[in-house]
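U., I forgot to send this yesterday:
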Amino acid sequence: MDVLRGLAILFVVLNHVHMRLLIADIPYIADSSKPLIASLFWNGQFGVQIFFAVSGFLITSTALRRWGTLSNVSLRNFYLLRFARIAPMLLALLAVLVVLHYANISPFVVSEKTGGIGRALLAALTLHVNVLQAHRGWLPANWGVLWSLSVEEMFYLFFPLVARFSRSNFFPSILLCFVALGPFARTIFARGNEVWSEQSYLGGMDAIALGCLTALLVGRVHFSRTALRAMAVAGSALIVSILVGLRLTHVPPITDSGLDMSVIALGTCLVIIAAAQTRWKGPRLLAPLLRLGQCSYEVYLTHMFVVFAFFAIFVKYGNPIWSVPLLFVATVVVAAAAGDIVARFFSEPFNRMLRERWSDGRRQLGSVSDS
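Result:
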């Protein structure tokens, strides 16, 4: 799980460095190399989709482990767990962004065109940053990344309610509806709105729903080692075909129909099944990627500070093309280190403290790393 989350956040960070270079119109790649570069650095959206699938699996499997069945989910404890994990880091980020806005530091100023600072705060706290951007245009990047949190947490706002009060066979049917509607949400339902095609609720919830279904399947069906090996190979092939294949070769039936996001989520879930039932552990060689995955939430919320800082240094010294690889590497390394520090000394201690405070005395609300 952590390897997949680490890959997802790595794609997001690389994508945002690449975007800064494109926005500044810095020609650091030859035309002949653009498809290959895109396959390496233009996969942020796919990274988020991978993360959504992993999230759905982890939340559902953790709920099953804690409460036995989804119909037994404690609404109080579920929401407290989500609050303990999400709120401290989010509130701290919003406080910093408000200060930077009023300090009039350009990359962080929320324009009146998008509704101003008050409207941005309301959107972040009520889980509709994606809606605001679709209607008013792009927010500053540090605010804009919160669109995925809006999609994910809106799903989990209703997840325990539907799981607890729907029949056991009915809940998977609801999840399958989300899976089926995902491609339509990214195409037909978006009605030409580029932002909404990428950031709509239904357009991201299909991957979360697939992750939930994967957890339910893993809990009920035990696959043979041959089947698990085949799933691992097939899932990896699907992920690579989307990340690399679609960048090198345009396939209209997949890309234009919104199925590319569905395919990469499906590939992720196949790998998850193989990893979960074989209890595969990442080798020491992947330790940095594993830790990156463990603090992916913190890296996701803070990495744009690092992107802006290193890009400002890059521009200050005259945009030297030779240093572009260094820009990518330095940004990834420092963003990972910053996220790790924030996780170790802020979000994880707060998470643990809140869970212990809200414990009912018989058992803790769960380990920090579960979800």
